Amino acid sequence: MTTIVGVVTFPGSLDDRDAVRAVARAGATPVRLWHADSDLHGVDAVILPGGFSYGDYLRCGAIARFAPVMETIADAARGGLPVLGICNGFQILCEAHLLPGALTRNDHLLFRNRDQRLRIRSTGSAWTNEFTVGQEIVIPVKNGEGRYVADAHTLDQLEAEDRIVARYAGDNPNGSMRDIAAIRNAAGNVVGIMPHPEHAIDELTGPSQDGLRFITSLFKHLAGVRLEGVAA
Amino acid sequence: MALVVVDVMLKPEILDPQGQAVANALPRLGVSEVTSVRIGKRIEIEFSGEPDLEQARQIADKLLANPVIEDFTVRVSP
């Protein structure tokens, strides 16, 4: 049974094509979803790609949150649908309150674009179960507003509940609090990540193939969900 | 004309690197008395009839400001 992964295109999305390519390269079937269409077309999971949805007007992700497709995705995510938000997708997930905190202007005000070392901190998510805790990976980071912020209570809670999925290793590219690069919700089906796994699937064009494991993790997660369904 | 003005500011504890960059540029203008600059947004909402402050507040809370990082005030413009 092939896994079908929806990739949403908002006006201003940039990395939807690379996300589609990454999904196909990992062995799943990509389906393109349109921001104005509230139907998810039977997908098993959704990727919210990077870019500048709605021109980043007002705040990054603030307007995308109210797109018809996002209302369906938010409901489905609360019901367990795996959702991966990359860069602008992470910002949208925070704006939609599917993840806590917010992403703000890089502390040095520069747009940062480079290959970035990350350390995986939580493998308890639908998108990172194929990694090991402490594993170092290298994927591109490219953002102007990637500085993760939340109040101290929220940050402590994320740490206590194993919900920090990855931290920046080495130099923090944007001043993100506690070096946070990726977080997950309590259930583990929703992950937001600032760097770009979809750009690291091919040695020819990326720094590694580490990005593919996010999608193969999804296969393992969905296989587990299906087993649970059979047992129940 | 029924105009409602919404001011959105980053919460005091949230770093404002844009404001800092402006503050750091002020000495070049010969200004040395300024200790802090913070940058926010002013949004003007026009209603067709009477200005509806409560509705403006809802718009601000749901869309114009992100309560995680920002505070806002709502007022009818004279």
Keywords summarizing the entry:
heterodimer, A: 232 residues, alpha/beta, Rossmann fold, two-stranded antiparallel ribbon, 25% helix, B: 78 residues, alpha+beta, Mth169, Chain: A, 3-stranded antiparallel β-sheet, elongated
Question: Overview of this structure, please?
Answer:
The complex is a heterodimer of chains A (232) and B (78). Chain A is an alpha/beta fold. Chain A has a single domain (4-231), classed as Class I glutamine amidotransferase (GATase) domain (Rossmann fold), CATH 3.40.50. Chain A has helices at 16-26, 68-78, 88-95, 152-160, 212-231; strands at 4-9, 29-34, 45-48, 83-86, 102-104, 112-120, 136-143, 147-149, 164-168, 180-184, 190-193. In chain A, helix 1 (16-26) packs across helix 5 (212-231). The longest helix of chain A is centred in the last third of the chain and has 20 residues, at 212-231. The mean pLDDT of chain A is 96. The model of chain B has no long low-confidence stretch (mean pLDDT 94). Chain B has 78 residues and is of the alpha+beta class. Chain B has a 3-stranded antiparallel β-sheet with strand order 2-1-3, covered by helices on one side. Chain A binds chain B through residues 58-59, 62-63, 66, 94-95, 100-102, 104-109, 147, 149-151, 175, and chain B through 10, 13-15, 17-18, 21, 63-64, 66, 68-69.
